[in-house]
Amino acid sequence: MSSSHNSINRSPSNTSNEVSENKFLKGQDGLPEAVESAPVLAPASSKGALLSISISCAMVAFGGFIFGWDTGTISGFVAQTDFLRRFGQKTHDGSHYLSKVRTGLIVSIFNIGCAIGGIVLSKLGDTHGRKKGLIVVVIIYIIGIIIQIASINKWYQYFIGRIISGLGVGGISVLSPMLISEVAPKQLRGTLVSCYQLMITLGIFLGYCTNYGTKTYTNSVQWRVPLGLCFAWALFMIGGMTFVPESPRFLVEKGLIEEARASLSTANRCSPDDPFIQQELDLIEASVEEARAAGEASWAELFSANMFKRTSMGVMIQSLQQLTGDNYFFYYGTIVFNAVGMDDSFETSIVFGVVNLASTCFSLYTVDKFGRRNCLLWGSIGMVCCYVVYASVGVTRLWANGRDHPSKGAGNCMICFACFYIFCFATTWAPIAYVIISETFPLRIKAKAMSIATAANWIWGFLIGFFTPFITGAINFSYGYVFMGCMVFAYFYVFFFVSETKGLTLEEVETMYAEGVLPWKSASWVPPSKRGTDYDATALMNDDKPFYKRMFALQKPNKLNDGDLILPLPKIALNIKDFPDLQQRIESILHEQDLFDKVVFKDSFIQFFFNTNIMMNKIIPEILIFGSQYGKVKCFPSKKIIVEFSSPNIAKPFHAGHLRSTIIGEFISNIFENFGWSVIRMNYLGDWGKQFGILAVGYEKFGDPLKLKADPITHLFEVYVKTNKLIEIEKSNNETDESSLSKQAQSFFRRMENGDLNALSLWNQFRNLSVEKYTQIYSKLGISFNIYSGESQIKQQSIVDILKQLKDMGLTRENNGATIMDLTPFNKNLGKIIISKSDNTSLYVTRDICTCIDRYNQYGFDKMIYVIASQQDLYMQQLFEIMRQLKVSWIDKLEHINFGMVKGMSTRRGNVVFLDTIIKEATNQMLNVMKSKKQLEVEKSKILDIAEKLGLSAILIQDMKSKRINSYEFDWKRMLSFEGNTGPYLQYTHSRLCAIESRIKDIVTVEDCKTANLSILNDKPEAIKLVRLLSQYHYILDKTLESLEPSTLVTYLFAISHQISICYNSLWVLGQPIEIATSHLALYLASKQILANGLRILGIKPIERM
């Protein structure tokens, strides 16, 4: 077995040129790093482009017209004299009629044909394409129509024709919404998929009108002319397919990349070279690769733990669409119209058809304006209200004076609510049921899932259509209460199980499901590429805890005004009303101890304020005595932790995508060291894989020894990008012979694995150059790693052993030659993961398993933290679950610390900005800012060094000042400001305190400050507030260690800096009497020490002079 040809970068990459064979393992949603980190682009399209794609989708949606035409015409056929004469039964007086059973069979058997066709014929969309599949099913529909028209007087011949035409319409009902959803722009997808329902209602309405026009004939013209028009609709549908682009997802699945690009270009009316087209193509390719890697979906997979929720949701939504009872209204509405003098059933149908059509037109606005969930929820409420009135009036008032004397007022009321019901149905459940199922399922199982969901719709349509005449004959209008109950159930089902997909791409919908977002919070979900700094992804995955669970017995308050300590009374089950003298009793007890100045009872809390004199005389001297050691505790002196962070790929530049992992990883290492842990900083390099084969082949073609010597990393990256582009072109042209660059790259990597000295020599050269460059960058950041590990360090025998162990434990199975591990039995959200490829090469997860075990055996760690981007949340969960199933006793010692993306760091072309460039730019801009600040005192010989440190401080603080899970915009202007919450502001505060110390050092020393008379500060509110802030340092460090959120410490340092600025205005040092100057300086030096200690934990070296 050979090792993997793939390498996953631990940090999100920002380059759109890096393509991995293993994209499906890149992130939580399976997207390549390039796609995740790239700016969100929009097509350079116009209103004309949107009109063009709308027309194309309308042609596809015309399949709904064919179904609606059948529904509209068949309801009239069963009442026409010639149809009854030919296919009905004769009475004793020579007239003809259709029994309820035969009527039900002729009308409803069509639904059974549709159900079968939806399941069986939808497969054509996967094998021959959506367009060709639609053409085939329309031809099947035509065959069914021919059989019906050819029927003379045999009802079972007509019955068979209905089944066959139903097969065709069933296929249409799956393939038509599917194709629309895959070619429509995401901002219009809901509207354009709803066109399918609009076409259904248009077909129903025109079918009604046609029946009304042919009812006066006495021969077969009555029903054969409407059937004959079906040929025109079918031919229009087939002809329209020539103007519609094929599904780009299908084309990518078949390896037709350029055709997919052309399809996207046509759909969006922009150039194939538009960056938006490339971005969309990358998304689709990643999704298809994930599906292909996981193997062909089976029917059983629809009911696996990972997919059952979505499958059942699709089936339920389609079933509930029928259980809204729309057929009940269309069938039983005639009786109500009779009550108000409208005896012509054809006129009744037209009235309902007009309301239905107009309402469906309105739905094109509502579906994308108000979202899927809101429409379904409010539609359910509206229909429940209609049923309550309609059924109640029908049961109690319509025939209050007997069936021969129906109440016209009651009838008018029922007609109004029947029409209002149709409005509610047509604007919500009718179109959105199709929208939901077209957006919900992953590509690889989409056809199967949509077919089974649609089949449920057809089956319920058959059951309701067949049994409604019998049920209404038995219970009359009480039948409405049954549907009302269904709608009440539908409301709660939608609320708890249906997620909002408005405005999301199909790939983003998959990401949302993968993240496990709660349906009732899904409207607030934001795709990873668009998340802002205040976005909290985890809040959408967990329900809010009850208040009492968030209480703690004794807490530090969030605001200083609330005290130094607070006690929530509900936590100790104490009702203050039961103890009216409680406040006086507590105050008397504490007063004797002289520990607190005051105790305040506020709402359900008791606020404790420490004695300021005691606090000052304890906190300030302690800080000055312990200095840089203040806040450091040896809680875990024998504990060992490995922190794996940064982890770039060899021979590729260290770019902004690695920045967050590096910054956060160093911070985590520092905070653990602060509490006495023995920390091993580990950099796990991507130093093995096919990428080196690509680089070697490319270097032979594009390499320049002079450029390599001058700037090795940049030159190697340029070579890699050029070569990779050529390989992509080869793939699109299906060039797979041995002379192709891809094959040459594989051959070179095989030589490396086989120990070829020349190949390994070149690999070593590239690796050493890269490590040397990385070391320089880490040195600028003040970071030093204990261990540089990498994929190349994994022993091949370890991979063989772990694969055998997984197989022997029954945890893996074979699928198309690949080794698959199904994790859904352990966690339904984890899905399946490929452990070994079909060519027996291992994958990244295999190597991570081996690495994890080797590290524990070698270091015996007490904790190991992976600092890896949130795009790989799913992958890390899968890795940890595999380790859990391997029964390792130390599984709870593994932890994944995730983080969001840095946005706004790409050039206009979407190319990555490398970290070297960022540091240089920050330094240059900082120099300009410093020159404009005349009050800054900087020695000329040190100005460049200070500017670089300030620039790095700016970068690091901007990264750490919000929760790490949040993405943030890279803002040069804001980041480099000396005002507000920025890195330069913290450094300026620290250097200003250093300057005060320097100016008075000949008069007052640090030793003097340790014994200062601090009671002088007792009447200074600004000083008291600052000391109270300083007293929280240990608490802040505890909270920081608990959450591993750098923002906790950063926010605290900002609070101290702002309070110091306030103190400057009144607590002067220079020019004051010695005793006062000493007390003020003691306060400032203690503040400076806390700032310095906090900055060092954040990985920032404090600047003493600016």
Automatic annotation (TrEMBL):
Major facilitator superfamily (MFS) profile domain spans which residues?
56-502
What is its membrane topology? Answer: Multi-pass membrane protein
Identify the main location.
membrane
Q: Which reaction does it catalyse?
A: tRNA(Arg) + L-arginine + ATP = L-arginyl-tRNA(Arg) + AMP + diphosphate
Q: What SUPFAM superfamilies does the annotation carry? A: Anticodon-binding domain of a subclass of class I aminoacyl-tRNA synthetases (SSF47323), Arginyl-tRNA synthetase (ArgRS), N-terminal 'additional' domain (SSF55190), MFS general substrate transporter (SSF103473), Nucleotidylyl transferase (SSF52374)
Q: Which InterPro entries match?
A: aa-tRNA-synth_I_CS, Arg-tRNA-ligase, Arg-tRNA-synth_N_sf, ArgRS_core, DALR_anticod-bd, MFS_dom, MFS_sugar_transport-like, MFS_trans_sf
Per the record, the domain of life is Eukaryota
Renumbered to this chain, the Low complexity biased-composition regions fall at 1-14
**Quick check: keyword ATP-binding in the entry?**
yes
- Stretch list, region Disordered: 1-21
Keyword terms of this UniProt record: Aminoacyl-tRNA synthetase, ATP-binding, Ligase, Membrane, Nucleotide-binding, Protein biosynthesis, Sugar transport, Transmembrane, Transmembrane helix, Transport
The Gene Ontology terms for molecular function here are: arginine-tRNA ligase activity; ATP binding; D-glucose transmembrane transporter activity
Q: Where in the cell is it found?
A: Membrane
Enzyme class at the top of the EC tree: ligase
Q: Which family does it belong to?
A: Belongs to the major facilitator superfamily. Sugar transporter (TC 2.A.1.1) family.
Protein name listed in UniProt = arginine--tRNA ligase
The species is Arxiozyma heterogenica
Give the taxonomic lineage as stored in the record. Answer: Eukaryota, Fungi, Dikarya, Ascomycota, Saccharomycotina
